[in-house]
Amino acid sequence: MQKLHPSLLLLLISLVGLAGCGQSSPTDFTPSKSDFTASVSSIASSSTPAPTVSVVVAPTESATAEAIVRPTFEEWPTVTLVPATPNQLPSATLDVTRLVTRTPSPPQGCPSRGTAEPPQWVPASENFNQDYEIATLTFLNTGGSAEALRVALQTVMEWFDAYSVDLTHDGVAEVVVIAKKPHIFGCQSGKYATLLVVEPVEYYTPQIIGTVDMNLNGMPELVIADSYGGMTPTNIFQILEWNGQRFQSLVAPEHLHSQFVDAGVFHGDIVMHGAVASIRDTDHNGTLELVLNGGIPVTGADMASFGPWRGETLIWAWNGNWFQLSSAQRDPPVYRFQAVQDGDRLTITGYYDDAIATYQKAIQDDALDWWSPERTEYEVAWFDAFATRLPMPTPDPAERPRLSAYATYRIMLIHAALGEASLASADYESIRTVYAAGEATRPYAELARAFWTAYQNTADVTMACGEAVAFAMQHSDSILDPLGADYYGGANMRYSAQDICPFGQQ
Fold first, then answer.
1. What contacts 420, CB < 8 A, 6 or more positions away?
2. 145-151: average pLDDT
3. What gap in Å lies between CA 240 and CA 221, rounded to an integer?
4. N- or C-end of the chain: fewer Cβ atoms within 10 A?
5. Among candidates 439, 353, 466, 342, which has minimal Cα distance to 65?
6. Pairing of strands 263-266, 161-165
7. pLDDT, position 301
8. What is the mean pLDDT of the chain?
9. CB contact at 8 A, 444 and 435
10. How far is CA 26 from the centre of its chain?
11. Helix then strand then coil, % of the chain, to nearest 5
12. Quick one: pLDDT at residue 214?
């Protein structure tokens, strides 16, 4: 009998960076056990349903984020003076024409169908899991069916379940039982044996959310979801496949953690806080991917106190050997400052064209919303039942001009770094004429002047950045503080002087 113990190292997820708003709402649907579609309802052993991880299996394409922040899952590199080779995730590109189909195993003989009486259980018993495993094996080995077992189980608790599905690719269905611990029973040497017991990490019952051939090798994968934590739990996902002897993990054995959200992969366990999961073909190559969206690590007033959060969509795809993290995309920016920070992240990873487009969006897009420290206070009070209700604050009229001035300055930096002097000159002229007079924007015009003067004198972007960084250090209250976490909350980027002009800075 195989027992599966998800690693407790999952509790040690490291948040390298924090992200913000725009998390998609879960979509619920009616599950069908004849299909691999299922809704993950993590159920506490007390029979009280835990928070739900909604699973949507659909052929539709996922929405494309307007601003794509490519992850590196490492510290950001120093920007060089030429377009940097982007740090990308390991490739999961796959030639599906070369996939090998597994040869079916010889069919295993099972006991003949009989008239056995369904077992009786006492769910409050301390030995319930052992008792129901023994009783279930006895029932199946005396000719009992999965259908009769389901009826008997649901007289104990309505969310208990049992169904048949061929997970070993031998043409003989195994029996999957969902109770306090999921069990899989299969035939070996003419009788049923326990093939897998899924041990919960905490008090929620793990759920089987998919039994489908995701990698097109003819063998169905078993996708399991578990949870731990409070009102918004952390979700743990595993992708298993029968190897002829046992169920083994097909998740790449690597350790990754997102820069932006509470998510990653550890010891073959895929982890995301507050995940909304789906199994679907995102790249239209025939294989199915595990798609997770979420990762915001706190809720309620605690969440609001950090300012706006944004979730992330992570995709695990088959690469011929493993399911490996192939894509990570943050939710689109909702607030203007988020678009500016996206541009800064795209710059630091060498995606200069995308960075310029994102800065331009921050300047021009009227649909982007505003944020201020007063709005943070308002959001916190809204979640706190005992706090005095505050009126919705009015937008800070200086925020958009300030962010636009800074975004134009960053566009100037990219043009200068790429040797596009005429474009950089036009950018600087725009800053000088549009933003030099405003109280909130003047510091960024002066910052641009510090860079541009040095750049004209030396034609050296690194030296010019040194002047800009020195200026930012001397005026951190008017340059750095209004851009990042000091103004927008700890869920967002915190700026140092070196971040203001990263080209060639160590």
1. none
2. 89
3. 6
4. C
5. 342
6. unpaired
7. 65
8. 78
9. yes
10. 14
11. 30, 20, 50
12. 96
CA distances from 20 to 179, 271, 280 (A): 36, 18, 25
Reported pTM: 0.71
Residue with tokens 């951190």: 476
The one-letter code for the residue type at 462 is T
Q: At what angle do helices 128-141 and 146-154 cross, to 10 degrees?
A: 150
> Hey, CA dihedral for 58, 61, 64, 70, is it positive or negative?
positive
Q: Report phi then psi at 70, rounded to 5.
A: -70, 130
| Sequence-separated (6 or more) residues with CB below 8 Å from residue 157 | 47, 123, 179
| Contact between 108 and 187 (Cβ < 8 Å) | yes
Long-range contacts of residues 242-250, Cβ cutoff 8 Å, at least 24 apart: 242/167, 242/168, 242/169, 242/195, 244/105, 246/2, 246/195, 246/196, 247/2, 247/4, 247/167, 247/184, 247/195, 247/196, 247/222, 250/215, 250/221, 250/318, 250/322, 250/323
Per-residue pLDDT tens over the stretch 169-210: 988 999 999 888 899 999 988 999 999 999 888 888 899 999
Reported as a pLDDT band with limits 50, 70 and 90, residue 21 is very low
pLDDT band at 22 (very low <50, low <70, confident <90, very high): very low
DSSP conformation class of 377: H
Q: How confident is the model at residue 130 (pLDDT cuts 50, 70, 90)?
A: low
Query: What is the sign, positive or negative, of the torsion defined by CA atoms of 416, 421, 427, 432?
Result: positive
Alpha-carbon Rg of the chain, whole angstroms?
A: 27
- Taking the C-alpha atoms of residue 348 and residue 498, their distance in angstroms, rounded to an integer, is 11
Quote the distance between the C-alpha of residue 222 and its chain's center. 20
The candidate with the shortest Cα–Cα distance to 340, out of 82, 126, 154, 69, is: 69
| pLDDT tens per residue across span 212-225 | 999 999 999 999 99
**Using CA atoms, how far apart are residues 404 and 383, in angstroms rounded to an integer?**
32
What value does the mean pLDDT take over residues 385-390? 64
- Of the candidates 3, 433, 320, which has an alpha carbon nearest to the alpha carbon of residue 182? 3
Whether the per-residue pLDDT at 10 is higher than 50: the answer is: no
Distance, in Å, from the CA atom of 270 to the CA atom of 312, rounded to the nearest integer, reads 14
What is the residue whose two structure tokens read 């995709």?
315
* CA–CA dist 450, 59 (Å, integer): 53
